[in-house]
Amino acid sequence: MAGTNALLMLENFIDGKFLPCSSYIDSYDPSTGEVYCRVPNSGKDEIEAAVKAAREAFPSWSSRSPQERSRVLNQVADLLEQSLEEFAQAESKDQGKTLALARTMDIPRSVQNFRFFASSSLHHTSECTQMDHLGCMHYTVRAPVGVGECCSVRAHLPVMLADAHNILWHCPQGTAGLISPWNLPLYLLTWKIAPAMAAGNTVIAKPSELTSVTAWMLCKLLDKAGVPPGVVNIVFGTGPRVGEALVSHPEVPLISFTGSQPTAERITQLSAPHCKKLSLELGGKNPAIIFEDANLDECIPATVRSSFANQGEICLCTSRIFVQKSIYSEFLKRFVEATRKWKVGIPSDPLVSIGALISKAHLEKVRSYVKRALAEGAQIWCGEGVDKLSLPARNQAGYFMLPTVITDIKDESCCMTEEIFGPVTCVVPFDSEEEVIERANNVKYGLAATVWSSNVGRVHRVAKKLQSGLVWTNCWLIRELNLPFGGMKSSGIGREGAKDSYDFFTEIKTITVKH
Ligand code: NAD
Predict the structure, then answer these.
(1) How much of the chain is helix, strand and coil, in % rounded to 5?
(2) Are 228 and 59 in contact (CB under 8 A)?
(3) Where are the alpha helices (DSSP H) in 397-452?
(4) Which atom in ligand 1 lies closest to the alpha carbon of residue 181?
């Protein structure tokens, strides 16, 4: 292991303190393939300590006014923004994404997550209705998940059942368990931490073991921002070890998870005995539907971006492009030309659009899809196996791959049905609107879709019929954080956004008063 002395050593952050761990995992720089960092390999003991800290911090944090909590969140945002460049460099090195993307998307959005929930949490109202004929009024109240009174409903109801099954149900005070993936490390972690904190919860977060550095750096800002010890605890390590310890802990009544569908299945199994509240944001196999009246000058660069941004490692990336037959040849020619202009190279190079993939294993998995497509008789127009990748000597062992365009592939092929999560996209022709809707819907996922057409009626009609939590028409990835985000079918359960996240991170109660 070259350069062991210079390795960056991360520590868990529990109860406002950085704590070493008894064992560590290697973390790689994807652009060189070298180990550069060591991540705590935490387990049950660390989760116990974090739960204790979160439990003790809960009464004080949850009873602060929304305004006070909002001030703290805004402080975190300000401090993060002041260190934007340092965070962007760290994110790019840790994840392999281009520095330009980390600077313009990942870190600014992480700052925005704190500001957004600092503001939106001030504007929630509750419902009230009246039944004058019975002399009653009814109203709702919300409280952070795990707060005594709300949790007692969860705790008391099933007590007999729980005893019978020897299951620990009681969580008089609880904390939110937050688990995030490696593709947008700080962006997705803060999209969970900020609303959970704003709603008055204490949290235990577990970032991906592959990309833990910016979460650790964030911990250094928390005390200065006025976040009390124990409100945010970050515990590092692998999914099967520390992730499962978090999910299985009886005092963690809520899990917000973003990641893959198989992991979601496991989390659901582990949560079931405790009836935990779950939010699952999972993968996609997102279609782009391009009608013959689409404005190709706008559609082509946007579809190249939607296919290959962040190395194609965004859950919202397009990976099935359906093009109406009359414009198929023209689209394909121009799309391949535009794709070839996306330079692959070292993430800090400002001329580079595609950095390194997250890991050797992932690179091999993505490449294997191209091999399978070839074996099925598909054609590769550019990228893997067709064009030559040129890299500096120091980056030869990095996890780089050229953006790859596949055609002549059947809808049933694994390349058209499974999430590849890399710089690979398939282009196929279609005839009619009805046909393309059916084909687009014919996968197990339902996260995001794009529709390109200048016919307003068609755009609305198709968007309504697509089985997809998000539909962008004549654009991609324009986000309105107030509105629900999430997928249907195997792409997830639940939604996140201003009101949706607030609803998820709180319990609601209906109170009836007879006067
Ligand atoms: P993953 O499921 O392998 O891991 C996600 C997180 O879960 C990591 O922190 C991991 O350590 C943890 N984990 C793994 N096994 C676990 C277990 N048994 N118990 C508890 N935690 C466990 O996913 P990934 O490879 O990190 O991320 C890629 C996936 O995430 C893709 O499918 C992508 O589409 C999806 N994703 C979805 C969204 C969305 O918003 N819908 C956003 C980004 C990524």
Answers:
(1) 45, 20, 35
(2) no
(3) 414-417, 433-441
(4) 26
Q: Residue 78, class by beta-carbon neighbours within 10 Å (0-12 exposed, 13-18 middle, 19+ buried)?
A: middle
Nearest to 280 by CA among 232, 320, 247, 324: 247
Pocket test for ligand 1, best of 209, 212, 260, 266 (most atoms within 8 A of CB): 260
Hey, which of 315, 399, 470, 491 would you mutate to test ligand 1's pocket, going by the most ligand atoms within 8 Å of its Cβ? 315
Query: pLDDT tens track of the chain, all 515 residues?
Result: 444 458 999 999 999 999 999 999 999 999 999 999 999 999 999 999 999 999 999 999 999 999 999 999 999 999 999 999 999 999 999 999 999 999 999 999 999 999 999 999 999 999 999 999 999 999 999 999 864 333 333 433 443 344 433 333 334 457 999 999 999 999 999 999 999 999 999 999 999 999 999 999 999 999 999 999 999 999 999 999 999 999 999 999 999 999 999 999 999 999 999 999 999 999 999 999 999 999 999 999 999 999 999 999 999 999 999 999 999 999 999 999 999 999 999 999 999 999 999 999 999 999 999 999 999 999 999 999 999 999 999 999 999 999 999 999 999 999 999 999 999 999 999 999 999 999 999 999 999 999 999 999 999 999 999 999 999 999 999 999 999 999 999 999 999 999 999 999 999 999 999 98
CA angle at 501 for the pair 496 and 504, rounded to the nearest 5°: 110
> What is the distance in A from the centroid of ligand 1 to the CA of 327?
37
Q: Token pair for residue 311? A: 């190395």
d(CA 427, CA 410): 10
Q: Relative to the CA of 486, which ligand 1 atom is closest?
A: 41
Cα 320 to ligand 1 centre (Å)? 22
In terms of Cα–Cα distance, which of 388, 389, 332, 321 is closest to 355? 389
Q: Could you tell me the distance, in angstroms and rounded to a whole number, from the CA of residue 316 to the centre of ligand 1? A: 14
Q: What are the pocket residues of ligand 1 if the criterion is a CB atom closer than 6 Å to any ligand atom? A: 179-183, 188, 206, 208-209, 238-240, 243-244, 247, 258-260, 263, 266-267, 281-284, 315, 419, 421, 447, 487, 492
For the chain, give the number of residues. 515
| Catalytic site positions | 281, 315
Residues 6 or more apart whose CB falls under 8 angstroms from that of 122 comprise 66, 67, 70
Nearest atom within ligand 1 for CA of residue 264: 2
Identify the burial level of 22 via C-beta atoms within 10 angstroms of its C-beta, where 0-12 means exposed, 13-18 middle and 19 or more buried.
exposed
Token couple for 488: 């249907």
